[in-house]
Amino acid sequence: MAQILAPSVQWQTRLTKNAMETSSMTSKMWNSVSFKQSKKGAFKSSTKFRICASSSGTINRVEDLLNLDVTPYTDKIIAEYIWIGGSGTDVRSKSRTLSKPVEHPSELPKWNYDGSSTGQAPGEDSEVILYPQAIFKDPFRGGNNILVICDTYTPQGVPIPTNKRAKAAEIFSDPKVVAQVPWFGIEQEYTLLQQDVKWPLGWPVGGYPGPQGPYYCGAGADKSFGRDISDAHYKACLYAGINISGTNGEVMPGQWEFQVGPSVGIEAGGHIWCARYLLERITEQAGVVLTLDPKPIEGDWNGAGCHTNYSTLSMREEGGFEVIKKAILNLSLRHADHISAYGEGNERRLTGKHETASINTFSWGVANRGCSIRVGRDTEKAGKGYLEDRRPASNMDPYTVTGLLAETTLLWEPTLEAEALAAQKLALNV
After folding, report:
1. 262 and which of 60, 183, 341, 394 could share a cystine (Cβ 3.0–4.6 Å)?
2. Where in the numbering of this chain does the GS catalytic domain appear (predicted)?
3. Contact 212/252 with Cβ under 8 angstroms?
C-alpha cells in the first residue's frame, strides 16, 4: 500500500562510559505511518517514540503502553463518550472508566461536559448532559473497551438545539413508521487534505492534477491517494460493529467514499456518526486532514455528497414502484424543506453539473445521476425496490436526513390540489 507521511518524534537517550549523563534530544520530523492490528484486534500506529540505550537497544515504551492488554489485571474498561459539537458537523469525545464491561446503553451512566467550550451553552450555565444511545467496540483500545454515541440535553432533560437525534427518534418511533421498517443505505463522500497546506492529498502544492477521469475507483500511485486511510477505516468500522457495506475511490483525486447500510430507522444515523468519528481518529494518526465540505475545490471538480438510499416495506413488496412514485411526489412538494436541512454550503455543489441537479429545481429519473431523486434500473425492472436521494451534502446530519425522508413519505399528507399539481409537473419531468 502507498505510504503516507506523518510527523513523529524520536526521543534518544544515550549513556556515556563514565556516568549516566543524558545527551541532548534530537527529533526526526517525518516518518512513514502504516496501520497494524495487534493480537487483540486494536489498531495501532507505527509512529515511534524510542528510548535508546547502549546495552539494551531500542525499546518502544509508549507504543507498548498504548497496546497494553489490561484485561488479566482488572475488570475495568474505558468508555469513549462521543457527541456532536456546536457546528453540527464536529465530533467531540472524552473518556471515563467503568467498573465492568457493558452490553447495552441503558447500563451506562449519563455524563456532562462544558457546553460553553463547544458552542452549545452559555458560560454562566454551561453544563450539557450526555445521554448514551449506542455502543460500538473500540478498535483503537481493543479488549472490552467501547465507543458510546450520545445525544445532548439540558440538565432539565430538554434536547439542546444541535441534538438532531431527538427529533428523528420521535419520527422513527411513530407506529406508522415502525410498521414500514424503513431501510437506509448512506454513501458518505469525503476529501483528504494535506495537513500544512489544506490542499487535497496527492495534488501538487499550489497546483492541479490531470483532469477527472482516471481517478474514480482507480489504482496506481498517480491515481489513488489515501488508500491506506480508506482501508484502515474499513477494517476499523468492521471491528467496531458498524454496518459498513463498501468503499471506493471517488471522481476527484484525494476523495473517497464509504457506504453504511442497509440500516433500519434511527440506527442509520448512529452508525454514520460513529464511522465519521473513526475516520477523524485515523486521519489524526496519519497526519492528514479530513473535510466534509460539499465543494472543497471550486471549478471543474466533483463536489462531495452523502447520497441516501431509502426504502419502506411497501416499496420492497410487489407493486412497490407505485409507492416509490407517491413518495417522490411528496418529496417534490417539500423540496425546499429538505434542501434547507441537507447541509451547509450545498448550493456550491448542487449546480446542475458534476452529477448533480440544480438546487432550485426538483427532478427525478431512472438511472439519471443528474436528478434530485434517482431510481435504479433494477427497481424499474422489478417493479419494487428503493429510491436514491442525491441532494444531501457530505456534511449533512444523518439523523436529520433520514428522519425527514421518513416523515415526508410516511407521515406528511399533501392537499389533494397540491398533489394533483405536483403529479402533472413530475409527469412532464420524466
Report:
1. 183
2. 161-430
3. yes
CA distances from 35 to 43, 61, 162, 230 (A): 7, 18, 34, 11
381 and 327 within one domain: yes
Per-residue pLDDT of 15-27, as tens digits, reads: 333 333 333 333 3
229-246: per-residue pLDDT in tens?
999 999 999 999 999 999
31 shares a domain with 117: no
Q: List Cβ neighbours of 205 (8 Å cut-off, separation of 6 or more).
A: 194, 197, 199
Q: Any residues with CB less than 8 A from the CB of 245 and at least 6 apart, and which?
A: 185, 259, 260, 261, 262
pTM: 0.86
Strand partners, 229: none
**Contact indicator for 225, 253 with CB cutoff of 8 Å:** yes
State whether 315 and 368 are in the same domain.
yes
In a domain, 197, yes or no: yes
Q: Do 104 and 189 fall within a single domain?
A: no
Give the C-alpha separation, 75 to 67, whole Å.
Answer: 17
